[in-house]
């Protein structure tokens, strides 16, 4: 009998711990979870700085000819960006002029905050990133996160020095989107993504006259509805649409940019005048 009890003791202990966790007030659970993230954050941040230092010394090993060639490429990019900045300034002036003529309210602007990626968490349950900035840079929950290829996701949790970003491929992210060249809103949501496969999402309420296939994809962009994401940001490519069960709309599948799984730096768009 004592031997059987010794064998069952770990299971009884586990059962007692689970039961105790279930009866603990929700406020304590939230506090314990936040405290755990705050205590473990320095470990991830330190590892991120170590990777940056390793990359720096790796670049120091490049030859002078490689550095000169990289400098020339960077000069070309800078010239292109300077032209884009001038064009953007002209467009902003034209928008302000038209808003004054039509008496339209000004569109809420965003402040860009660049952040390094500390950790990636891709699994069947989670599709998220941890970035190296938090309350110390005035990040807010719900702020959109972008990169050069379009939408990354949105900030779901903010801590003292780090923040968690739910990726656009996560099931927790749902937003209104439009097919490029169309104005009718479509419901997008992150899908069930395999750990080592390509990320994707699903579409609902797609108009019947919209078509797409793996050989003829269509770009899906943000609609701007809801006030979270600015309009026109790339979400992914629509690779499949088919009639839904009700016959009134279509449903579809979206392929997300593969670079999403290898990002080292992202940009958080913080509203200048948050509501």
Question: Explain this structure to me?
Answer:
- The chain is of the alpha+beta class and 275 residues long.
- It folds into three domains: 2-60, no CATH class; 87-166 and 263-271, Beta Barrel (Thrombin, subunit H), CATH 2.40.10.340; 174-261, Thrombin, subunit H.
- It contains three helices and twelve strands.
- The strands form two sheets. A six-stranded antiparallel barrel has the order 1-2-5-4-3-12. Strands 6-7-8-11-10-9 form a six-stranded antiparallel beta barrel.
- The longest helix has 39 residues, at 64-102.
- It is globular, with a radius of gyration of 24 Å.
Structure, briefly:
With about 280 residues, the chain is of the alpha+beta class. It has helices at about 1-25, 25-60, 65-100; strands at about 110-120, 125-130, 145, 150-160, 165, 175-180, 185-190, 200-205, 220, 235-245, 250-255, 265-270.
Please supply descriptive tags for the structure shown above.
Thrombin, subunit H; 3 domains; 275 residues; 3 helices; 6-stranded antiparallel barrel; globular; 6-stranded antiparallel β-barrel; alpha+beta
Write the layout of secondary structure elements.
Layout: H1 2-23, H2 26-60, H3 64-102, E1 110-122, E2 127-131, E3 144-147, E4 150-158, E5 163-167, E6 174-179, E7 186-190, E8 200-206, E9 218-222, E10 234-243, E11 250-255, E12 265-271
Antiparallel strand pairs: 1-2, 1-12, 2-5, 3-4, 3-12, 4-5, 6-7, 6-9, 7-8, 8-11, 9-10, 10-11
């Amino acid at each position: 009998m004592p031997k059987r009890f010794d064998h069952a003791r770990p299971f009884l202990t586990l059962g007692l711990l689970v039961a105790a966790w279930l009866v603990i007030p929700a406020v304590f659970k939230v506090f314990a979870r936040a405290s755990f993230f705050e205590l473990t954050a320095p470990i991830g941040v330190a590892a991120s700085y170590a990777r940056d230092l390793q990359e720096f010394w790796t670049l120091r090993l490049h030859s002078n000819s490689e550095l000169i060639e990289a400098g020339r490429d960077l000069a070309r990019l800078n010239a292109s960006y300077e032209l884009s900045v001038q064009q953007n300034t002209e467009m902003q002036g034209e928008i302000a002029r038209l808003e004054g003529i039509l008496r339209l309210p000004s569109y809420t602007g965003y402040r860009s905050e660049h952040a390094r990626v500390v950790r990636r968490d891709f699994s069947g349950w989670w599709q998220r990133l941890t970035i190296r900035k938090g309350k110390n840079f005035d990040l807010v929950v719900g702020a959109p996160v972008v990169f050069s290829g379009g939408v990354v996701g949105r900030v779901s949790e903010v801590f003292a020095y780090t923040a968690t970003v739910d990726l656009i491929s996560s099931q927790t992210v749902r937003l209104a989107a439009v097919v490029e060249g169309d104005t009718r809103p479509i419901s997008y949501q992150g899908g069930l993504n395999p750990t080592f496969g390509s990320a994707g999402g699903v579409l609902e309420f797609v108009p019947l006259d919209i078509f797409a296939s793996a050989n003829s994809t269509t770009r899906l962009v943000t609609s701007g509805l809801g006030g979270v994401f600015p309009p026109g940001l790339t979400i992914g490519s629509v690779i499949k649409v088919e009639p839904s069960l009700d016959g009134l709309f279509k449903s579809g599948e979206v392929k997300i940019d593969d670079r999403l799984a290898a990002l080292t730096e992202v940009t958080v768009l913080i509203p200048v005048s948050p509501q």
